[in-house]
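README: folding subset

This subset contains proteins for which both the sequence and a predicted structure token string are available. Records are stored as plain text. Below is the entry for Ornithine cyclodeaminase (320 residues), shown exactly as it appears on disk.
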Amino acid sequence: MVAGWGRTLTSCPTLAIMRYLGSEAVLELLSPRAAVEAIRKPLLEGFDPAEDPHRVKVGLTHGEMHLLPSSDGKYAGVKILGIQPPGSTEQVPLVQGSYLLMGGRTLTPELLLDAASLTRLRTPAVAVAGVLDLLRASSEPLEVAIYGTGVQGRAHAETLIDALQGIREVHCTFVSRTQPADLPWPSVAAGRAESDEIVGRAGLVITATSSPKPVVTSEQLLDDAIVLAVGAHTADTRELHEDVLRGAQVIVEDIAAAKREAGDVVQAIEAAAITGTDLISMRDVVRGDVELDPGRRVVFKTVGMPWEDLAVARAVAEGS
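--- output ---
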């Protein structure tokens, strides 16, 4: 008998061998469109993001560790991330990690997934899921302006195209200070008249940048534009000027989480552009409890929550 276990190893149920899915496997097993539906599913079934555990940040000798735990009854899971500190000279990605998926009752580890690919699927899936019904309400071609040519900017384009396939055409143009040669969509330089023209006619604007300061102002946008802000995830950073939120229908994943972590929301409240009572939960929009006005601007600010990673990880596991 192993001390402290209370029963012999031979009396334990047979433990499954934990599998590992790398980046390519994760992306092959779940399409962007399926990831969007995986995010919507628990909300439609009654899950309330307000009940989700908080993200835990642990300071380390060098950098931080972030833990994002969640459970849904059938599964439990945690995303474990290692974050390099500002100014790090280590020749590694800023964020690295893995996702551990366990049985919901046994808590037996079943699957280990590459966290980067999971996040690549999850982040745009959340953003698109929150406004999917509004996007699908029209059959007109959709002009999209995307700030940020990195992994997330590209993943948002892929997710939009997949989620709206057969419903409406999606035309993406990237706005960036750099013009990557491998970008498969047209791009324009930020801060130029051409980029202002692109953003000014876009029905959907996405900010997926690492900028700590606003990259979009209200005067650049159509009055009825949909804005998805996904880049900033701390209270002291933001991608949108507060005037973008003023008078808009502002959606967040969870109101309490947004007030803790969403700088675009926190700073807009501090500037009296909006109040906390103006915020609309994603759950209410997806379930149809709140109907959005297509004639007014919609802003959906996301920060990433543990339940979302679990929802996508579960969909990957059940498709593997």
